[in-house]
Write a structure and sequence with these properties.
By secondary structure, this protein is α+β, with helices and mostly antiparallel strands. The chain contains 29 helices and 28 strands. The strands form 4 sheets. Strands 10, 11, 12, 13, 16, 17, 18, 19, 20, 21 and 22 form an 11-stranded mixed sheet that branches. A hairpin with a 2-residue loop joins β1 (109-114) and β2 (117-122). α15 (387-398) packs antiparallel against α16 (422-433) and α25 crosses α26 (642-654). It is elongated. The protein starts with a helix and ends with a helix. The relative contact order is 0.11.
Amino acid sequence: AITELVENFETHLELGITEQEARDRLAKHGPNELTERPRPGFLALLWDQFNNYLVIILIIAAVVSLALGEWVDSIAIMVIVVLNAVVGVVQESKAEQALAALKKMSAPNARVIRDGRRMTVPGREIVAGDIVLLEAGNFVPADLRLTETVNLKIEEASLTGESVPVEKNAAVVLDKDIPLGDRRNTAFMGTLITYGRGTGIATCTGMNTQIGLIAQMIQSFEDEDTPLQRKLEHLGKVLGTACLAICAVVFVYGLFRDTHIAEVGTIGLVGYLQAEKGDIINLFMTAVSLAIAAVPEGLPAIVTICLALGMQRMIKHHALIRKLPAVETLGCATVVCSDKTGTLTQNEMTVVQGWAGGKAFKVTGEGYSPEGKFFADAEHFDPQTRADASLLLQGALACNDAKLEQRTDEAGKRTWQIIGDPTEGAMIVAAVKGGLQPDEIEQALPRVQEIPFDSDRKRMTTIHRTEGGGKLASAHGFSYPPLVAFVKGAPDVILELCRHRLEDGEAVELTADKRKQVLDHNHEMASHALRVLGVAYRPLDAVPDDLSPANVEKELVFVGLLGMIDPPRPEVIEALKVARGAGLKSVMVTGDYKDTAEAIARDIGLRTPNGLVLTGAEIEKLTDEELAARADRLDVCCRVSPQHKTRIVDAFKTRGHVVAMTGDGVNDAPALKRADIGVAMGITGTDVAKQTADMVLTDDNFASIVAAIEQGRIIYSNIRKFVYFLLACNVGEILI
């Protein structure tokens, strides 16, 4: 509870802490910023490049070649070794940028209350117990327990995977074990306030915050060798052992081939060796030469060239490789754990179904592009010719704060984008598809008052003058009074406030049967994982003096329902079929709710008959061994935290899989680091995800991952062919 926090942190909701107390706490607990562990120095990085079995053998071979007078061979081998070391050091000395990107997400300044005064302080000086003031457009400077919220919405997609801004409510008291995405009374460091305002007590700062925990996880995971590196290391040991064996066998055989036991017995072994000194040196050089012949000195160069060419080829498939070994790791991948939003889906909320006047309809079109058609019973219709559908779209457009804009990117391509809430944006796009224009509606129905959305009320109301609005609806035989109030929100909540329902442009009494019909259709749409909003209106003669919800939101006329979803990418269905045919298992790992995730998985063919769907809460109850035992049957993991994602990756690795993990948010970074190959989204991905990943998708498309894995397998196959060729040549040299 808030009172307990105030006591524990020795603060005051109105006065805050004192300046002196803030300085003392800052000195004791350190600044509110992310810290990183010391990086290895240049010499340590250099030693890592030479601390390799095959490289050591090459160095020995170069030294021996020089001793034998084969200085051309010696120089060639050393150039290869040094070049490989330089490339490795340059690659690894590029400081890990993930933490730097995390730091950028921290708030540079914050508004706090200290000594009873409101002041602005640097974000790094926030301490536990500070009373922090939040406004739309601000980044949250620390982890806060909210004490006051007014229509507060926070964009937490990068941290929790939640696809829409989260409504916050300070009055809610929650259990300690509730998942991150459901903590409605908490604000997290680095998230963005999109709407409303609030106040909170700073409970955690710096590395103790949720974003700090992610930073610790990123730094705690060591880079692992790729499958190719492990196999080359094994090959190096086999070749090294073979070289020593060849040396020993040839030298011993040559030493005793023409040796007379009687002669050795007469002058002793030492005397014999001194007598035959010249021949023995030649014999030793012959043995060493054979051993050098066994070493494929061209192998490191060929592997590097193959991977570099592969990187160039990958770019054509929208895959940007950040780390060279990732090219071949892709070819070995057996499991792809994919994020849902933006990778399997378009990350653009879209109205796909509607219901008005007792009739259902469907809406076509993709994303935010306002191109699509309306169908009822498989027949195309113009919503402007149906009074109920027309008014539903008018209400959705008028009672709306989002904006639809067309922008031109750097390549000159024009795209449509939404400014504001994605749900409201989807309603605007549907209205434009239906022939309505936002500017015209704004002029025809100018807004004169509003009651903002409230998470307790679950609805929003706007009041409009209707001088021009009457003309828009006159064709349907519907006339507005001087004012009209439009209400949109949760269908069941709005229905409770309605007395009538619109049918064929007329308000008819909302009987129990008609009410049940609306609720049944709402349930039907929700069962397909659609986010459903209802629209209603109320004629008004004047703006009420008391503009309270109870005074305005009553005696409403129910108009209809709009159902929307973030639709799957059309090319993903075929890509999943290709992946399955190639023996590649695909798993959806998302922060979204179970019903939504499962519905999308069914639509794209990811859900298998015997597959498992696990939530974060269920994963929490499983031991690592139990999770690993279920890994091969996993289809969907939903409502998961960053810790759950890393456990899922570890579960598959325990089963012997090579795991590719995709992600775009801060919450994905630990799993991207932990996976054999981390794949970040280039368009929607945060800097943290991109800097942690081995590969970046330039088009955020799952189909591109499958295409890149196909290329990776080709490259891996080419490297194997080169190894076989080199070994065949070397064996031929030895035998001759």
